[in-house]
Amino acid sequence: MTDQARAEGRLGPLNARPLLETAAAVLLCLLAFAASPPAAWAADGSAMVIDANTGKVLYDDAGDAARYPASLTKMMTLYLTFELIEKERLKFDDKITISAQAAAQPPSKLDLDAGDTISVRNAVLSLVTKSANDIAVALAEHIAGSEANFARLMTRKAREIGMSKTTFRNASGLPDGEQVTTARDMLTLALRLQDEFPEHYKLFATGQFRYAGHNYRNHNTLLRSYRGTDGIKTGYTRASGFNLVTSVHRSGKHLVAAVFGGQSAGSRNARMRAILDRSFIKAASRRTRPRLDRPQLIAKPRPAERRTAAASVLAPKEPPPLPSAAPAAPAAQSKAQAVAPAAASAPEPTPLDDRIKIARVRHVGVAQHLAERRTLARDAAALAKQDNSSPDSAPRSIAELIASHASAPTSPRASLGMQVNGAIVPAPSAATPVGLTGEAIARAEAEPSKPQPPRGRAPSSLQEQLSTILASNRPAMMDEPAPQHTPPASEPAAAQAAVADLRGTHVEGTHLIQIGAYNSADEAERHLATVRDKATTVLAGAAAVTEPITRGQRRYYRARFAGFDSAKATSTCQELRRRAIDCFVTRTP
Hints:
This protein is an alpha+beta fold. It has two domains: 240 residues, Beta-lactamase (3-Layer(aba) Sandwich); 185 residues, Alpha-Beta Plaits, CATH 3.30.70.1070. It has 19 helices and 14 strands. The protein has a five-stranded antiparallel sheet, with helices on both faces. α5 crosses α6. The longest helix has 22 residues.
């Protein structure tokens, strides 16, 4: 009897092929499972390449699909930091204190202890090279009082610059199921960083960072291995896989590209090289894409809850609602509705301090000043001749005449958001958040979040803190030169000259309250009108003035309320902050 016959006699007829196929399939599954790297569990990959010279998409593989950003998140953390530096609210030499929360972050990190300090410059470099999570949290707390507040500002800013499908939940990119983005959104952010902060963007090309005796090499190895690469950021978590956003210049061509979901750093870099090589063939060598304009918005901090000595100066009593995890682009809605409730539905609160009783605000506007400039000059000259006054009295008369001729206030500006040129009354012995929290946070779209305790100290109201306030608002001194900028061509030269005249104008009172600095005089006036409308009784009797300043070749216009003595300016600014209006006090020029 044959072997097959014996087998059939014991077990019945056999079909060997199905058994072999089943065994082979099981073996292949086991081998695949054993060989899978951790990133095999990551979200599906995606990639996109954009010609930065034209704005045209040259390569798109699921570029609008939701992905986890991982440490690409730090690109937005740095965007907000650069914006503060540009607006004089933060300096590279400022010191950041590491909180216990920051020190407890998982790697990658500098591993500083709670209570240690680090300069803003070194903090930025640690994010660019080491991708330090502890420093990202410390920077967020320094700016906004808490990481949760800062994340809301990140999402708000993302909406403002066109990142419609991005939601941020933290400053570092550590795993959070609701923190999502797309390849297109991250390339939008990369282009914004390059267009708006050309000098600061150069920091993304840092190959090595030395701190406290340690050398940290940039995780973006394409800086050393792919010709023309000038930045910008890598990222990795188990859920996201290996991510990379990069920028490359070659022979007048400029590409920005994103790769998400790589199974290793090597495979991610290989795909990046491949799609860049393919795209350079089609790329343009002449720039036709318009430079992206920065949104000029105003930060409006929410009052702090003075629960303990550790309460943040700017932290809200409970965190405002957060946007949904994968939000859609905002519907057609008036910008004014997105900024603040209508006056009818939100009556102005009664001042908390009954001692603040100042009459109605009087607005001094550039437009009105232009219309009457010659008449005012003649009147001022006549007064000077008649009174045989000193050199100081003519400017005083001009200011009074401007105030007396000022017309009704203009309509509030439609779009408000995050303006970063002010300071908050500092605590006696603790770092004060720089001022990005508040109404800008509260305006972020939508879903409730768990409250998170604020950090930092409550602000001091002592008058002797005034010198500290003034010192903290000196213009930022940066190692890099300021970006070259020419005032907008649409603004008449006469208007600029008229605004410049206000610098020498004397206004009654020794102190002013500044609410921000803007790219145009008209924008500054609109913000002054909006603030006045929100706090009419508090600012009654104060004159609204604009003042031009120049940083390098860049021109800004300060928006200020004048006519205060030292004590009144301090108490009024505190009351404005209680009403979610950012401000700081400075001396009259």
